Amino acid sequence: SRLPSKSALMRTDVMMVTPWLAPIVWNGAFNIDILNAQFHKRDVRIGLTLFALKKYTVFLKNFIETAEKYFMVGHKVHYYVFTDRPQDIPSLSLAEGRTLNVTEVTSYKRWQDVTMRRMQIISENCLQRFIYEVDYLVCADVDMIFSDHVGVEILSDVFAAIHPGFFQLPRQKFTHERRPESQGFIPKDEGDYYYTGCYFGGTVEEIYKVANFCHNAMMADKAKNIEALWHDESYLNRYFLYYKPTKVLSPEYVWNNYYGSSVYVPSKRFVHVEKDYVRIRSD
Ligand code: UDP
Ligand code: MN
Fold it and tell me: What's the domain range around 61?
């Protein structure tokens, strides 16, 4: 699966490129050795932002341990963990060239606010430190594990991942925010893909724009007592409608076993962990 295709024709069963000519990353579409050599030449530094507030600290150990095995192996990786419970962060051994930094942040009562405020924290940290410390940022949910290779093939100026529940559905079925009064509004006949809110990334400059837009949109809605249907995910989808991602990740890169399996996704590289929603989100 790591070999390049011998023919100039690649997979024909799935879309390999968006209508705005951004690559869609599928298994078999790239040669990782060529890509690794290119990114090593640039000595690229990759930051991974993770939020583990309240009971979500339980997910960190498996996340980091599987990331050590599969995520950007051989490259410089900085894990940035944001938490309200620094004493609950386990100490984990990391491979050479990889560091983990814990930053204490204040929590919010509603889980929706915890997930949405990630955008504010990401945007502030882009200016304060990420810009000095890393070249790319990957922003991920913490209730996930890696179970196969995820490497530099995902990196681009700004990338988004197709939500595993929507890649075979027509855009009318996408669960975008449809109320025009919300800053997350997307008209019924618009929307390119339904992107997941749990995984996106890009250069620090681009992620600053993404996170800053989403945070401001949420604050504008909050002032009017509106909250978009799927919280940060809705605002992110709105941003990506008007500022198209330069790379799109197939659902291999963010699977959820709730959707079973798909012949189009032979490898589930990054998978949501099952959780008891009520219990894990309670105080
Ligand atoms: N989160 C957290 N503590 C909470 C709620 C959410 O740390 O109490 C963070 C965590 O990183 C989580 C993300 O916000 O992965 C998104 O929330 P969740 O995973 O519950 O959303 P879902 O994937 O179920 O839509
Ligand atoms: Mn999640």
Answer: 24-171+195-224+245-275
Q: To 10 degrees, the CA torsion angle through 122, 127, 132, 136?
A: 40
> Which residue has its alpha carbon closest to ligand 1 atom 12?
141
Residues with CB under 6 A from ligand 1: 51-54, 56, 111, 114-115, 141-143, 198, 281
Q: How far apart are the first and last CA of the chain?
A: 44
Token pair listed for 242: 């008007």
The number of domains in the chain is 1
Q: What is the pLDDT of residue 13?
A: 86
Q: Is the pLDDT of residue 103 over 80?
A: yes
Paired residues of 202 in beta bridges: 137, 158
What are the backbone dihedrals phi and psi of residue 251, each rounded to the nearest 5 degrees, phi first? -65, -5
**ipTM score above 0.95:** yes
Ligand 1 closest atom vs CA 230: 25
Give the CATH number for residue 107: 3.90.550.10
Q: Does 233 qualify as catalytic in the annotation?
A: yes
How much is the pLDDT for 6? 53
- The answer to the question of residue 181 being in a domain is no
Instruction: Ligand 1, residue 111: give the atom nearest the CA.
Output: 5
